[in-house]
């Protein structure tokens, strides 16, 4: 799964200016909490001093816009009930919500699930691809507890402020965070497979085949064939020479007829002359 990733760093945001380092040990998923599918609207209003918030990326329908370097500490989680903050540990991205709904507190009002299904699927796939990419880059296991979480789960863990995202939205489309974590893990393993397939060329295959045959050739023959081998070598059907007889490798058709020919020659010689 490939993610369409562009970069528009929010260099005027105080968080970027502060520039503290993050060593990511997790990823937190957010949604913006407003019916605005266009990330540029957020980028414009966030790229200035005095905003008090900043994330690493925005996921939108067409891809991902990176807004902070992955190793810069972001301001996205606030402080949780334990007094700790996922800002110190987690990468963060906002998912853009479709147009058309409003909010009453943390609840979406007038959200049309059916009309937004394809929009949601695009957002979800991009979120999976981005999270898989980041997990790979920072060697994170998405299935380990507390690694890939949403803002609401962060609140439950006591490391984020009391927000509902994304559990006020994704379950409307029958997606849980557990499903998301499984899909991220799957995308990571599929990514590995794609890589192997991409690297395999005819040339590479031939190379590996040569190596395989050489390994087979170098193996010692089994004891049960000893008598036959001695006979074949003494009769000159298998050449003795300094090179190994390659008993555990396959014979070509060329070698087979050569052996038959030598056998025939040998038998002809043995026939009594009239
Ligand atoms: Zn949030």
Task: Tell me the layout of helices and strands.
Elements: E1 5-7, H1 14-18, E2 26-31, H2 39-46, E3 57-60, E4 63-66, E5 90-95, E6 102-104, E7 107-109, H3 117-137, E8 148-150, H4 151-156, H5 177-199, H6 202-218, H7 226-234, H8 253-270
The structure holds zinc ion.
Tell me what you see in this structure.
The protein has helices at residues 14-18, 39-46, 117-137, 151-156, 177-199, 202-218, 226-234, 253-270; strands at residues 5-7, 26-31, 57-60, 63-66, 90-95, 102-104, 107-109, 148-150. With 274 residues, the chain is of the alpha/beta class. The chain has 2 domains: 5-198, Lysozyme-like (3-Layer(aba) Sandwich); 219-270, no CATH class. The protein has a 6-stranded mixed β-sheet. A two-stranded antiparallel sheet has the order 6-7. The model has no long low-confidence stretch (mean pLDDT 92). It binds zinc ion. Zinc ion (ZN) is lined by residues 30, 151, 163, 165.
């Amino acid at each position: 799964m490939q993610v369409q990733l562009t970069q528009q760093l929010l260099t005027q945001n105080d968080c970027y200016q502060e520039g503290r380092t993050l060593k990511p040990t997790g990823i937190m998923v957010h949604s913006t909490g407003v019916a605005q599918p266009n990330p540029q609207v957020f980028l414009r209003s966030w790229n200035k001093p005095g905003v008090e918030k900043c994330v690493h990326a925005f996921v939108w329908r067409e891809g991902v816009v990176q807004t902070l370097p992955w190793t810069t500490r972001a301001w996205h989680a606030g402080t949780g009930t334990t007094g700790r903050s996922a800002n110190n540990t987690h990468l963060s991205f906002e998912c853009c919500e479709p147009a058309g709904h409003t909010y009453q507190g943390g609840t979406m009002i007038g959200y049309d699930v059916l009309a937004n299904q394809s929009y949601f699927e695009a957002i979800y796939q991009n979120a999976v691809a981005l999270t898989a990419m980041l997990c790979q880059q920072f060697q994170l296991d998405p299935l380990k507890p507390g690694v890939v979480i949403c803002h609401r789960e962060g609140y439950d863990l006591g490391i984020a402020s009391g927000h509902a995202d994304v559990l006020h939205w994704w379950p409307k489309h029958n997606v849980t965070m557990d499903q998301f974590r499984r899909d991220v893990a799957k995308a990571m393993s599929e990514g590995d497979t794609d890589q192997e397939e991409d690297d395999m060329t005819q040339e590479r295959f031939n190379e590996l085949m040569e190596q395989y045959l050489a390994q087979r050739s170098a193996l010692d023959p089994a004891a049960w064939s000893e008598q036959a081998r001695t006979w074949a070598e003494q009769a000159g059907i298998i050449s003795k020479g300094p090179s190994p007889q390659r008993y555990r490798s396959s014979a070509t058709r060329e070698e087979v007829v050569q052996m038959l020919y030598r056998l025939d020659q040998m038998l002809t010689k043995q026939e009594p002359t009239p």
